[in-house]
Amino acid sequence: MKTDTKIALIFIVLANIMKKSPVYLLLYLFAFAILSQRAWKSLPKLLLWALIVGFSAEIVGTHLCLPFGCYEYVNLRPQIFGVGLFVPFAWGIFGAIAYLTASYFFRNWSKRLLFAALLMIIIDLSVDPIMTSWKAWVWKRTTAINWFGIPWTNYLGWFIVSLTFFYLYERISKGEVEEELLKLAPSIYLLEMLTFMIYAPESVRSPTEIAFLISLAVILPLYLWRWIK
Fold first, then answer.
1. Are 124 and 158 within 8 A, CB to CB?
2. Is the peptide bond before 78 cis (omega within 30 degrees of 0)?
3. How confident is residue 227, by pLDDT bands cut at 50, 70 and 90?
4. Is 71 strand, coil or helix?
5. Do the beta carbons of residue 226 and residue 183 sit within 8 Å?
6. Which of 102, 153, 172, 187 could join 115 in a cystine, given CB atoms 3.0 to 4.6 angstroms apart?
7. Going by C-beta distance under 8 Å and a sequence separation of 6 or more, which residues neighbour residue 62?
8. Strand-pair partners of 138
9. Residue 47: in which H helix or E strand, if any?
10. Is the pTM above the cut of 0.90?
11. How confident is the model over 29-50, as a mean pLDDT?
12. What does the alpha-carbon distance between residue 102 and residue 163 come to, in Å, rounded to a whole number?
């Protein structure tokens, strides 16, 4: 493994260790800055599209209840146009991890994008219960079918928004990633899911444990299939 990739991986591991701190975001930005120099040169384009599409969707969502459902930001600050400043960057971080993992398993672009969007939903199975427990945002109403009080429409919204910026990224970029970084992708994704579970408040430990098990059930068979292939 090349030195720059090793350093980026160290930043990613540190980010997960310090997940409850604002340093989490900064460490990931350092890691992505390093990776964009060689291992994944078009990564900034993905981050930009995730930020633009994610932020736009959040503004619309908090005002029109589409595409996620009716919610509002409360304790997550600072805010811009009623949206927590951290959120657009989170779309970028999670989007990059999900896309990288999907790229390891699927070369076909449509399968890659659909799987990446699915991985984003699994991430939010942990993220949303944790953040609502902190009242970072609150749901004004839920649906009969829900995930620990979170409306199912939220996950449909995550799929649509994620698929949109993944598609836009691939329209303007070849999405070329060096193989040594691709091989790390499933481990990085599972590390994210594991630390969500570890740091989750006791009140929402169950959804994060289930989400982690779902991530294992999705990733490990594909990893075995890729290894055998």
1. yes
2. yes
3. confident
4. strand
5. no
6. 102
7. 71, 72, 73, 82, 83
8. 72
9. helix 43-64
10. yes
11. 97
12. 12
